Amino acid sequence: MNIKKSGFVAIIGRPNVGKSTLLNYLIGEKISITSPKPQTTRWQILGIKTLKHTQIIYIDTPGLHREEKRAMNRYMNRIANAVILDADVVVFMIDAVSWRGEDEMVLKRLQEAEKPVILAINKIDLLKDKSELLPFIDKLKDKFNFTHIIPISAIEGKNAHLLEEEIAKLLPEGPQLYPDNQMTDKNVRFQIAEIIREKLIHATEEELPYATTVEVEQFEQSDKLTNIGVVIWVERHGQKVIIIGKKGARLKKIGMQARREIEKLLDHKVFLRLWVKVKENWTDNDKALKSLGYE
Ligand SMILES: Nc1nc2c(ncn2[C@@H]2O[C@H](COP(=O)(O)OP(=O)(O)O)[C@@H](O)[C@H]2O)c(=O)[nH]1
Ligand SMILES: [Mg+2]
């Protein structure tokens, strides 16, 4: 490899616009979990793309929120802000064709940052009337001096490579920062916890995922089997009952789906045990957040 350029690219935007979906598409692996529900991404996750002469390090962020009351939201906003400051290039993602108060709020933070911003208008596959796009783009041009405005579909990959080309051009000269074959900064335990959280989000209603976190307590590999023990933390007893489901059915389903995906990740047979435990008001308590690794 002969890397001449490298740098960090922050993917930011309000929850649910498709940031993690774009990251996964660009890297070609599911490294960041996704769902139709907001607040799925809780962590800063790096996606590393090594091209012929350029290494792009994408940073997937939790969505920026207006609501800062709960400690978890404050935590997620802090990460997103820090990421904007650290990045060489910002990809600001919005939904075709709507512009909301939350987008305006993200834009405000960008105005202070003074770095190249590419506006990615996502989900164009959902547009029934493509003629809406041009007037929408014209309106956005007045809001900010975007380096580029690119309509994309993260789920289908439409224009994703065009976006990547423009990003690569904007990166500064720099050395290779990660090995060729490394795709993310997260370790296997983290990825396991995230897979379980994704299955949990998909198996439960709106409010619940917000109150949960997943902790891998045991991870032991032998020749034949990987033994994994996991605690799902919730805030209230009622939430525990919901996750477990009738005669344990829901937890069993979550466990089965997660196990299959973890086996693929590890390329190894897995024995997975899940426990659900209660820790009161943990999202509201900075100390509890720390004890669960949200530093
Ligand atoms: N139709 C369509 N759906 C998308 C697209 N990108 C993301 N989604 C969906 O939008 C939801 C939120 O995506 P996610 O990547 O988790 O959003 P994030 O909160 O910004 O990270 C998921 O259900 C995705 O499948 C897209 O280009 N087209
Ligand atoms: Mg996300």
Describe the structure.
The protein is α/β, with parallel strands linked by helices and 295 residues long. It folds into two domains: 5-170, P-loop containing nucleotide triphosphate hydrolases (Rossmann fold, 3-Layer(aba) Sandwich); 188-291, GMP Synthetase, Chain A, domain 3. Helix content is 36%, strand content 22%. The strands form two sheets. A six-stranded mixed beta sheet has the order 2-3-1-4-5-6, with helices on both faces. The chain has a three-stranded mixed beta sheet with strand order 7-8-9. Helix 6 runs antiparallel to helix 8. The longest helix is centred in the C-terminal third of the chain and has 18 residues, at 249-266. Bound molecules: guanosine-5'-diphosphate and magnesium ion. Guanosine-5'-diphosphate binds at residues 13, 15-21, 34-36, 40-41, 63, 122-123, 125-126, 153-155.
The set of bound ligands, ions and cofactors reads: guanosine-5'-diphosphate, magnesium ion
Q: What's the arrangement of strands in the largest beta sheet?
A: 2-3-1-4-5-6
| CATH fold topology of the largest domain | Rossmann fold
User: Compute the gyration radius: what is it?
Assistant: 20 Å
CATH top level class name of the largest domain: Alpha Beta
- Helicity level: 25-40%
Q: Mind telling me the CATH superfamily name of the largest domain? A: P-loop containing nucleotide triphosphate hydrolases
Query: Which spans have pLDDT < 50 for at least 5 consecutive residues?
Result: none
| Assigned CATH architecture of the largest domain | 3-Layer(aba) Sandwich
User: Which structural class matches the secondary elements?
Assistant: alpha/beta
